[in-house]
Amino acid sequence: MPVGSIVVEMRLAGIETRIAANEFLPAFLKRRNEQFSVAPRESESVLRKSPGAVELDRKLRLKESRVVNRDHTLSYQGLKVQLPKSSKYASISQQRVEVLELRDGSWEVIYKQQRILRLTQA
User: Fold this and answer.
1) Cα 71 to Cα 82: distance, rounded to the nearest angstrom
2) What pTM, to 2 d.p., does this model score?
3) Residues 6+ apart with CB under 8 A from 74
4) 52, 53, 62, 93: most buried, per Cβ within 10 A?
């Protein structure tokens, strides 16, 4: 039975209406699956466990790069955002940071893989 033979089989079976085609389809698919199905070599699932909500938020996000201004601000979506001072860094002016927009609409500013600011919607 060549691929695409459903049309041929429907013609041979005298099927001419959508209702008859819908009735024909389950038996056709059962025969086709029996013909082409292959047992897996290993019965163990190879699917990975889905990530947690926090990790999923990190992966499903928008990411843009910005350069911090001399006054420790950056512009994003028409807003000027003041970055807080940090005990870890004397100054991050003129440094490149990443702005992440998460699924919940909040923003995070990341510098050297450290979150330095998180803004949430009010």
Assistant:
1) 8
2) 0.56
3) 66, 67, 68, 80, 81, 83, 97, 99, 109
4) 93
Question: How far is the C-alpha of 10 from the C-alpha of 8, rounded, in Å?
Answer: 5
3-class SS shares of the chain: helix, strand, coil, % to 5: 25, 25, 50
What stretches of the chain show up as alpha helix (H) in DSSP?
6-12, 18-36, 53-59
| Pair of tokens at residue 38 | 């292959």
* pLDDT tens per residue across span 56-91: 877 888 999 999 999 999 999 898 999 988 788 888
Cα(66)–Cα(32) distance, rounded to whole angstroms? Answer: 55
3-state secondary structure of 39: coil
